[in-house]
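Need tokens for this chain, all 511 residues.
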Amino acid sequence: MHKELRKLIKEDPNNILFLCGAGISLDAPTSLPTVNRFICDILKESGIPDITIDKVYERFDKINYRFESLVDEIRKMCDVDLLLTKLFDSPSFNKIHHFLSVMLKNGASIVTTNFDNCIENACFFENLNLFNRLVYTGVDLDAEEKPLSSVLVKIHGSQPIEGEIASELVVTIKALAKTEKAFKAFPNWREYLLKLISNKTVVVMGYSCSDDFDVVPLLAESDPKKIIWLNFDSSNSFPVFTDNITNTKISELSKVVPVLYFNGLLVPFLIELSKKYTLCLREGEKKHQFTVEEYVSQLYKTQVDKYILCNEIFLSYGLYSEVIINEDSPQLHLQKIKSEYRLGNYEYVINLCKEVLEKDTPVKVLLETLYYLSSALYYDSEYEEASDIAKKCVAIGWRIKDMDYYLNSMINLASIQYVYASTFSDKDKREKILDSVQKKYRIVQERAEGVNIEAQATALWGLGDLERYRGNANKALLFLQDALETLKKIGNSYAIIQLEKIIQEIQNEPH
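Here are the structure tokens for all 511 residues:
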């Protein structure tokens, strides 16, 4: 056993903080699905052929939209109450959860991004009272002192336990926007978490370091005694120390905080650690859990409903040619419009939009169709018509208080007006419009904070384009690189490819 693991076994639990991710709930009997398994099971249950599922499978681990972005779209299109979150909970617990409950009992603290109640189930098994359980609910903590030992912190929210009211889960990109920049919008949460981590031995288990908006920057700013990162690796029966950290995000983090990285199976080490407490690790009984089959059958009654769900997956994973259309469904038409727009087939998008607008269309579909029509007309150099429609979209978004639609429409309008102004020979007229465009991007920047991360990034992109046009290459690069950093965190591969080309062009231009 490595000396650092021996030290950990002897460490006072009050000085230990466990940081846990989804990986701790993979073992039986909880066996909660990974995102990848969830995606494949949804497609299979919806009748998508294996050859198409294989194409989605090949997209895993490449740059794609974050799972939270996909969930946001599923919520908007077909699962308003996010019934899908029940798939990521269990009424049971495994040996890792049992170990954590005992460590909690003995003074250790736990921070988890999981919203399942598996740790709580193990605590109930141990008859441990959960007085020290803090759950993020979408608002800041009160200013009262909070415990720094024997505390369970559900940093991304939690499924309710008996007697609790369901609260916000950080499972959508919209919810994630609130916690970005290491909980900047919630100073009490931020201060408490930094204090909880300070001077502790942080033990990371089942966590992939993918929370670029909140947890990872929080760790980077924290002051732990050290971080012991236990990475699951079936090739080692016991955690083995390595200097070769293949996960680039963890590698970057290790440059600012002390990380000791181990590869191997987790449970054998936890069994060794639990011997200190003369404890035999147990697991709960296998109980019925909500299945993908139940989820699809309860919520998606028709094949069209299933296709709408599957199309959101295809759009999220950049498989635009796989998007399914059906003559009788405005929602499927809208998804086809999105896919063809991203493929650059703007004439087809314009025609399809006009078809949808001529039919009896639900309001939400109608609004999105107008947005894509103005965008496609812009690319078709029909600037005046595009601008008129975009103005209408901005006004509607503001009137109905749909902030996402308003922000996206405002960006669209600014971009159309920017390119249109660049065609003017009258310098004064051109500069007046460009000043107005700049103001619109600034408004989006301000109003999108904590509301729409992607709109913030796109506004930065617009400001960068504007500075480039005005000959300020260095300022342009600062805006564009900031935008790119956020878009990479979101995983918008369509935008990333375009933006990287623009940055490369600027860097290759003589200054």
